[in-house]
Amino acid sequence: MLAALVSSALLAAPAPVWAQANGAPAAAPAPAPAPPPAEKVPDTVFDKALADYFAGNPRAAAGPLHAWLSSAPRTHENYAWGQYFLARSLIDLGFTHAGSVYLSRIARERSNPNVLPRALETLRELTDRPHDEVMIDEQVFGALDLGFLPEEAGAYAHYQQGLVDLRVGNERWATTHFSKLPEGSAEASRARYALLVTRLREVKEPNDELIEDFLGLSKDEKLTRESRNEAALAVARLRYERQEYPRALEAYGLVKLPELDPGRATLYLEEAWTRYKLGEVRAALGILTTLDAPSFRDEFLPDKYLLRALIYRDLCHYLPAKRAAKELTRRFADSLEAIRAREDLTQDVRLRRAASAQGATRRAARFLEVLELEGERLGRYAGSFGERLYTHLTKTYDLAHAEARRVYQARLEESVRQQADTLLRSAEQVRLMEYEVGLKLYERVKKGSKVVAPPEEELLSPSQVGFTFDGEYWNDELRSYRVRLESRCIEENP
User: Fold this and answer.
1) Phi and psi for 133 in degrees, rounded to 5?
2) CA-CA distance, 277 to 484, in Å (whole number)?
3) Are the C-beta atoms of 145 and 126 separated by less than 8 Å?
4) Do 136 and 167 touch, CB atoms closer than 8 A?
5) What is the chain's mean pLDDT, rounded?
6) With helix as H, strand as E and coil as C, how does 264-282 read?
7) Which of 132-136, 164-168, 261-265, 394-398 has the highest mean pLDDT?
8) What's the pLDDT at 450?
9) Contacts for 321 with CB less than 8 Å, ≥ 6 apart
């Protein structure tokens, strides 16, 4: 039966072009030449490379270390050390992915228990940068035997294995891993944050306890600033959904940005919506003025135009409301046309940029950028690395780049669809707004009607100073703009 399968496979295989053209039988391809065996490299090369590394010359150490590893048996007592110091040399030279490949091999092979903790600690440090999540997070830390690891590496491994369990929907196993984290450690705080995010996705109406847990994490100094800000944003969004607008505004104030940082456009837009719900329309319009700053002009914020149109409509400025509504369809005309024509949305510049700026797609994009940068840098070391190491690294980066692009493209397609849905919803609301405003423009005012006095907003306190906006945007003033706009609404007598 095996012979029959082989025969059918050979019959199905196309003959070479020249054989098909001449009717000649296909000749068997010549076997590829075997690579020449690596010459024996003496251990003195390893010692010399090690001396170069400790002398602060990783460039001189990398090539000899790879040559020694290519000829040394894997059972050699220094083989794992050779992998480790080659990885450290590559990382010091800016090739973080190539270094992580060798460190991951050490973690999987576990041939030397003295090298393993160092390799795992270096890998743990690399996870703070864009990295291969499958190779490091899942295949190394997600698959480690946790019984023999030192405390710090073991804690990070428990954290990563708990995350893997959360991704597949097994919260009970994840909780078991997280319970073994040292109380008060950074991993314990990150684990609580991951659990809360998972529970938030599952509940329909978050309770006070869940919100208070997020609030506690927003003040946890063991978390990174980005994680604390995400926790504060979660509190603000949950309070907004519960229509607790004053408390939501307090939570937005907990987000701490670096000094003179222009900030997050989405944060400002959410705060503007909150102030609009509180009736602070002039403050909301001031924040929308902030979003016109050069720092935010390329941001994907279709709701910005909808909110501006709503504010103008509420103050009965119908022509500005109509112009604000039309601005959305004008600015996103190409994207809307691509959606209606069912084109490949990953080729749309606006949607692609918006999709690449968040979540898993952003991480994949950043890792792809790192691979491209390190791949370009590799050419500068062709001479000092030697032909074998240079060829090996070129192949490593080519394979990693192809896989990273596949992952990025898959995530991009999903994220682009979400951004397209957001744009379509905003465009539909804007069309309804235009229709409503058009009716208001031609509505006749009854005799005896009077202007409605809008609620007073306190613009400045005695300790504040106001300056007329002259078109210049300063980072330290972006959240303090206010717009004075009188209401034109008419109240009809009963």
Assistant:
1) -65, -35
2) 18
3) no
4) no
5) 83
6) CHHHHHHHHHHHHHCCCHH
7) 394-398
8) 57
9) 309, 310, 312, 313, 433, 437
For 362, residues 6+ apart whose C-beta sits below 8 A from its C-beta are 356
Residues facing 490 on adjacent strands: 451
Establish how many alpha carbons lie within 13 A of residue 295's alpha carbon, considering only the half-sphere containing its beta carbon: 16
Cβ atoms within 10 A of the Cβ of 205, count? Answer: 8
User: Across-strand partners of 450?
Assistant: 491
Alpha carbon distance 174, 195 (integer Å) = 9
From CA 375, how far away is CA 97, in angstroms rounded? Answer: 10
What is the model's pTM? 0.79
Residues ≥6 apart with Cβ < 8 Å to 488: 315, 316, 317, 451
Output the CA–CA distances (angstroms, integers) from residue 284 to 137, 310, 452, in the order listed: 42, 11, 20
**CA pair distance 92, 377, nearest whole angstrom:** 13
HEC secondary structure over 312-355: HHHCCCHHHHHHHHHHHHHHCHHHHHHHHCCCCHHHCHHHHHHH
